[in-house]
Amino acid sequence: MAPSPPPHDAAPTMARTDPDAEQLLYELMLDPGNENPYDGYRRLREQAPALVTGDGTLVLTRFEDCDTALRHRSIGKSDDVLDLGIGDEAMDRPGTMVDLLRDSMLFANPPDHTRLRRLVSSAFTGRHVEALRAAVTARTQAMLEALAAEPGGDFMDAVALPLPVNVISDLLGVPEADRLAFTPKVHALIAALEPTADRDTVALGERSGRELVDYFTALLADKRARPADDMLSRLVASHEDDALDEQEMISTALLLFAAGFETTTNLLGNGLHALLNSPDELRRLRDRPDLMPTAIEELLRYDSPVQFSARTVLEPVTVAGADLEPGRLVLTMFGAANHDPDRFTEPHRLDLGRDDGSHLAFASGLHFCLGAHLTRLEAQVFLTLLVRRYDPAPAGDPVRRPSFTVRGFDRLPVTLSPLPGGG
Predict the structure, then answer these.
(1) What Pfam families does the database record attribute to this sequence (predicted)?
(2) Fewer CB within 10 Å, N or C, the chain?
(3) Which pLDDT score, from 0 to 100, does residue 103 have?
(4) Structural domain contains residue 3
């Protein structure tokens, strides 16, 4: 969706300290299973929209301020963000975890980010992704039919996780037998990056990271010896001057695998949950399939799979009235920005026809989500088949994933009743 002006003018943001607002921020982060953090975001945004914490971190909750920070070339990525800790003690992330991230696009800045992204971006263009539609449709249809045959089944386990895992694995060339077996290790690695992670969680993430490094090292060696028609084979075969070195290749392979399903899995789960709680909007989408593109953007905005991103100041810069020196951290709170009433009319309301402008669920600027086209395709295929063929209903209490950064469900029991004449 093209950007549009906010519904009404907002006063300029002036950064300031506020112990009460800082305490509210920590309470939000320490309650990762919160069904509705958006009321807390609203209070934080109203009280201190540009909060300077005790350690000098700048926390932004307004859309305009977050978007400005994400686009500013003086604010980028570094492994300094791994020092962010909200628990009782600062957490040192071990070497494997830091090395994995340092050599990936996730924490790179130009020119390295430009080089790393260019070598893989062709696989995620709109044209290339559209060529996957038939395969994605066949997988989705089979998964939905299997779930419909077992009323009360877990949507996360039956569709939301295996669909994007298999799609990104097909693209990368990860063998089918290994795909779902490695997803818990990815979850463990991501959980260790949470600002509230405790020592046991970090230790499990470190072990999982080592096992993932070993796996992708062996897989890339196999691709080098027996190349196939997949992205990993093309990466190891690249002889360009800016081709990836071995460590960059391992980090890139792991990042693409993890990012290729995490956002989509949680978009599908969060999106279905939102529709189950808004049956009028579900019926509206069934009656108005032309709303599908805006519906996907609205589901991304309404309950975003990624709730915040941490950035590092690279050069002196002023943001939201705060003069920032290199090394300072900036938290852009996507979940709060996507519910900013200065950007979105009645942001608490799910409106599948909303046309208020772009959201920040995929971030913004240089680090805009590489797989956005793929995520949108998978969501479009899933929702189209769902509303044409099934009447979904809750079948038990959902269980939120214990994560603040990545928001989603561990379990989402549903029943899919076939619609008469659905096709």
Answers:
(1) p450 (PF00067)
(2) C
(3) 65
(4) no
What tens digit of pLDDT does each residue of 397-414 get? Answer: 999 998 889 999 999 999
Check whether 88 has a pLDDT greater than 80.
no
The 3-state secondary structure of 372-422, one letter per residue: HHHHHHHHHHHHHHHHHHEEEEECCCCEECCCCCECCEEECEEEEEECCCC
Among 21-35, 145-159, 339-353, the range scoring the smallest mean pLDDT is 21-35
Q: Looking at per-residue confidence, does 62 or 114 come out higher?
A: 62
Integer Cα distance of 66 and 338 in angstroms: 10
Q: Are 330 and 313 in contact (CB under 8 A)?
A: yes
Asked whether residue 87 carries a pLDDT value surpassing 60, the answer given is no
Across the beta sheet with 50-52, the strand order is 50-52, 58-60, 329-332, 309-313, 75-76
**Domain assignment present for 34:** yes
Backbone angles phi, psi at 115, to 5 degrees: -65, -50
Determine which helix (DSSP H) or strand (DSSP E) holds 261, and give its type and residue range: helix 246-276
Q: Write down the pTM of the prediction.
A: 0.91
Would you say 260 and 164 are in contact if contact means Cβ atoms under 8 Å apart?
A: yes
Residue 83 belongs to a domain: yes
* For residue 272, pLDDT beyond 50: yes
For residue 228, what are the domain limits? 19-418
Rg (CA), the chain: 21
Q: Tell me whether residue 203 is exposed, middle or buried, using C-beta atoms within 10 angstroms of its C-beta: 0 to 12, 13 to 18, 19 or more.
A: middle
Exposure b/e, 135-174, CB count within 10 A at least 16 = b: ebbebbeebbeebbeeeebbbbebbbbbbbbbbbbbbbbb
- Assess if residue 12 is contained within a domain: no
Question: Any idea what the CATH number is for the domain that residue 345 is in?
Answer: 1.10.630.10
**Which of 190, 119, 358 has its CA nearest to residue 182?**
190
Q: How far apart are CA 355 and CA 360, in angstroms?
A: 14
- Tell me, letter by letter, the H, E, C secondary structure of 92-151: CCCHHHHHHHHCCHHHCCCCHHHHHHHHHHHHHCHHHHHCCHHHHHHHHHHHHHHHHCCC
Taking the C-alpha atoms of residue 32 and residue 201, their distance in angstroms, rounded to an integer, is: 14
Residue 91, SS3 per DSSP: coil
Q: Which residues contact 290 (CB under 8 A, 6 or more apart)?
A: none
Residue 384 has pLDDT above 60, yes or no: yes
